[in-house]
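Q: Hi! First time doing this. I have a protein sequence and I read that you can turn it into a structure. Is that right? Here it is:
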Amino acid sequence: MFQEYDVIVVGAGHAGSEAAVAAANMGAKVMLATMNMQTIAQMSCNPAMGGVAKGQIVREIDALGGYSGIVTDHTMIQFRMLNKSKGPAMWSPRAQSDRMLFARKWRNMLEAHPNIDFWQEMVRGLIIKDGRCTGVMTGIGLEIPAKTVVLTNGTFLNGLIHIGEKQFGGGRAGERAATGITEQLVELGFESGRMKTGTPPRVDGRSLDWSAMETQPGDEQPSRFSYTDTPVLEEQVPCHISYTNPQVHEMLKTGFERSPMFNGRIRGLGPRYCPSIEDKIDRFADRERHQLFVEPEGRDTCEIYVNGFSSSLPEDVQYKAMQLIPGFENAKMFRPGYAIEYDFFPPTQLDISLETKLVENLFFAGQINGTTGYEEAASQGLMAGLNAALKVQEKDPLVLKRSEAYIGVLIDDLVNKGTNEPYRMFTSRAEYRILLRQDNADMRLTPLAEKVGITGLQDRVQRVAQKEEAVRDIRKFFTKTGVTPDQINNYLNAIGSQPLKQQVKLVSVLSRPQLGIAALRQHSPVLDQFLSQYDEEIISIAETDIKYEGYILKEKEMAEKMIRLENLPLEKELDYSQFVALSSEAKEKLNLVKPRTIGQASRISGVKPSDVSILLVHKGR
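A: Yes, that's right. Below is the predicted 3D structure, encoded as structure tokens:
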């Protein structure tokens, strides 16, 4: 009934959708298996993409030929660039999305790809022969053969939903859990664990008093995620901000005895950085209020997402507490918030390509690896799909370095350090974040994507070349063109900056922290005329490169040192217990992870610099 597929992707959430596209764009014949075709790429939690560090990931996905950025640009209803008051390494794009349009656009793009087939049914098991995955088995007993399989099961593996004292099986509201795969993998020798996440109530926007809340508009000049010619957002929908108060907290506390989080019914590891409202009240008892972001689910719906009010308390307690929030006095609830527990597999059981160590040709991506967030899941799906296709083509996997992408940091952290709580990306996790800015992801990654064989990137590659040339020309102009004291001293005095005594090059003035290109253009007609031929994004990249040149060079030097260690391979079957001088912890961790290189070994939790020195001696260094 079925041909042998190059790649079968199990699950069609954000990880699965990107995995299917990535493999298909490598020329692989792909089957995307999902329990429900109506929920492909559904935004199960908040209706937004991007955010701090997450926005950088979405731009990296786009630079590598993924679809998340394109879909977001076509379906966003508000755009904001976060952290603009900080340095450009911290700037992070975020978009409020239309939940229904987002999923529909994803499905349309997937169905338009000639290399992707679909199958709607639960996958209950894998076909394993001689330590290799050779396909999947469906709920009704059909066997679908494949050369590689990517599991992106999200929260569905033995998913259990909690609302107060009620609990029932489900992968998310209204959908059943997936069974069979965890049990089979454990039988094969995999270690599994339980994690939990949650979601807030959805409410009727028609019942809210918007005048009692703060309005949060989008940027006056909204940007985009994709480096392609996606539409520019013209009419934005505002979000709003409200706050809890002591009365809300006291009402929520009345349900603590019936809370599955406090009475021990939930044993899964919860997200540190996105706690439930009851967890926030318990952990931060001194806080009199907590911020709530009141977010529309779409342009043409009255459904509202109450970001910051995630809860698994009984529904009556949620409802009573909510009506004590300013603006929510007459709120009508569409559905209560809930917590969900699900199986995951500690990611130290994966190779850096996201292929499992125990079973060849089997890849994991997304929440099955212990991560949280659409963006983290989508990036893993992209890399797993690419590497599954490369495995079929008998080529080396694509492994992004920590100095090349936030995606590289994410996967490196997971595989080498593991995670004991849902992993979320932050800019602070990246030691090379001045190099990994949201504005230069295409310059960093699109040439790599073309080199590895991703199709349809010709226009993107040409744009990158033009962008790089333009940035070089601007830098050259700043190093050769001068500005005189009479042109700019009045302005320098006004901002408290040292006035010029003689003509200097523009580059030296721009390096001052108080000064930017926009101000310089106002005082140098020749500069203003020269820059008029370039768009603002290119000018901004050039400005950042000039102003932060010293820091950028320093990070590049650090990265090059680490790359030298990355180029020192370690034998895959090396038995680290034979090294007498290694610490006991290092032996245990190195034998568990089986690092590919000295660089990877150096980042494993518990491996000390002295242990790395011993490995360098082993390599003749």
